[in-house]
Specification:
Length: 131
């Protein structure tokens, strides 16, 4: 076997290996989402993600496999570089506007847990119950 053929075969295998790796290995915190195409989770920088989303006519969103949605009283959080989250957006349109302006991505927040139910007022939970 000639060394040139072995080298070409090795280069071809190296070029194909990223396509064979599981998607979790290739995941990045920010994805470009375009209708009709698979998510492109290739961006570590949200500003680069926003630029590419604008170029393709899509949206830059946080990758749910990489960024855990925080618990918030508001519906959406703005994820920025360095893991900074601002959870102050009740509507997606507000979050998306700031994401484009500030170079970030919107994440749907997890809702707060409901408060514990209030026991009947005036009932002593430690009182003796007689039949």
């Amino acid at each position: 076997m000639r060394p040139g053929i072995l080298l070409i075969g090795s280069l071809a295998l190296a070029a194909l290996s990223p396509a064979v790796l599981p998607s979790a290995v290739q995941a990045a915190p920010f994805c470009v989402r375009v209708t009709g195409l698979p998510d492109q989770c290739l961006y570590a920088d949200p500003q680069a993600c926003q630029r590419e989303a604008a170029r393709q006519g899509g949206r830059c969103e946080a990758n749910p496999a990489e960024i855990e949605a925080p618990v918030s009283a508001f519906n959406y959080c703005l994820a920025q570089a360095g893991g900074v989250m601002s959870c102050v957006y009740p509507a997606f349109s507000d979050c998306a506007g700031d994401a484009r302006r500030l170079g970030g991505a919107c994440v749907a927040a997890r809702p707060l847990a409901p408060p514990n139910p209030v026991k009947q007022p005036g009932v002593d939970p430690y009182g003796v119950q007689r039949p």
